[in-house]
Amino acid sequence: MAKASSKLHVAMLPWSAFGHMIPFYQLSIALAKRGVRVSYISTSRNIDRLPEIPCELVPFMQYVSLPLAEVPGLPNGAEATVDLEFDEIPYLKVAYDLLHKPLKDFVSRHSPGWVISDFAAHWLPEITEEHQVQLMIFSVYAATSLVFFGPPEYLTGEGREKVRPAPESLERPPDWGTIFPPSVAFRGYEAAKAYPGFYNSNASGITDGERMARSIRGCRAVGVRSCSEFEGEYIELYQNLLQIPVLPVGLLPPSKIGEEENKDGPWTEAMKWLDQQHPQSVIYVGFGSEYKLTKDEVYEIAYGLELAQLPFLWALRRPTWASDDSEALPPGFLSRTSGKGVVCLGWAPQLKILAHPSVGGSLFHSGWGSIIETLQHGHNLILLPFIADQGLNARVMVDKGLGIEVERREDGSYSRGDIAYALRRAMVGNEAEKIRTRGRKAATIFGDQKLQEEHYIREFVKYLTNAARYQ
Can you give the pTM of this predicted structure? Predict the structure, then answer.
């Protein structure tokens, strides 16, 4: 619980995507519990959609709302990537960059000991330097992904000609170090999408690689959502590449099921069904909200679940292409799978589902946050990556023997047979049992609240306090 003795004030500035804002929130809560005063900064609509600050932490943590400017190309009311189509996201970056002035005013007025920022605010180093405030970049990505892209000079044109001259260069692991698994790289269809998004200019006038490079060059240290027990060699390698401190803050696993996940609704009957299933037999299926699945992708997943003949619980947000719930799934799918599986459209109490003893595996997109939530319970992973770092995460999990990746064609497509084959490999037979054994071992790390919440956060706060004191 929080101790009022600490005078340290930390301002948090995440990028406007919920895969970033939630880890920043979790880190803020962890710091507030240790008496650190936290100002969590975002835009008004994003703050309205974040969890409420626990009552006992209100004296230590506050939300700070900054206005998001209206810019051409950005739909009215859109303040996070979840509100946008992929090609609209650069306009959100334009608006995000206009937070420069209100953020500078906040730092000038409040003089926090640290600003902990995401990769996107490339203009922040000049603010923190002017006001003599310490800057840390906090990465929500796994250390393996950070090592894959490398130090600042390889995120921009300076070193890209040698290491990443074209999309095909993302299809092989980096040359530095001998520990990097040869299998951990992008597939051709992933590289073709990831390369221009990271290395090419967009409507904001700056590449994502340049954003990250400028942020890292202007910071004192980098915090990573990871731990030495799982990624120690990569954390150490990344520190050697950057030549500044790289601090694991722990995995920030959810510590408990929130009250909002116990509310009545369509999930009441689904949970009753789950109670009736055999231990570790059910596959939880969920793909979040950032990537918008196409009709073909949803239908092939559905047919694959049907073909696998394994119990499943699918949390499916109604796709934008479906005019009503009946169009979201193949005709007759619900009747054919009645009793074998459950589909609920809309919000899902994911933490509560993953914690249920009947769940034994998860088919999902390989996002780092979802991997953490799943391995917290030692479940087998069935990996179907789509965007960003998900492909790299999937290959790391396979390399560590913790899951099965769905096979894809050269164009990235997959069939119902590919889904069914991966599900049965991951859940039935000797291979599945070996994965389950490794998963139980991983759970002793991912689910160790004392290690993740106490040890790593205690050491992190100690670093922040000492560095601020001797600034």
Answer: 0.92
9 is catalytic: no
Q: For residue 265, is pLDDT > 70?
A: no
Q: Looking at this protein, which amino acid is placed at residue 387?
A: I
User: Cα separation of 137 and 114, whole Å?
Assistant: 10
Q: Tell me the longest C-alpha to C-alpha distance in the chain.
A: 67
Going by pLDDT thresholds of 50, 70 and 90, the confidence category of residue 160 is: low
Catalytic residue among 97, 118, 418, 448: 118
With a CB cutoff of 8 Å and minimum separation 6, the contacts of 40 are: 12, 24, 25, 28, 47, 50, 61, 62, 63, 64
Among residues 20, 356, 365, 379, the one annotated as catalytic is: 20
CB 203 within 8 A of CB 118: no
Q: What is the pLDDT of residues 79-112, one digit of tens each?
A: 999 999 888 999 999 999 999 999 999 999 999 9
Burial class (CB in 10 A: 0-12, 13-18, 19+), 1: exposed
- Domains in the chain, start-ordered, CATH in brackets? 9-253+449-469 (3.40.50.2000), 260-446 (3.40.50.2000)
Catalytic, 455? Answer no
Beta pairing, strands 221-224 & 134-139: parallel
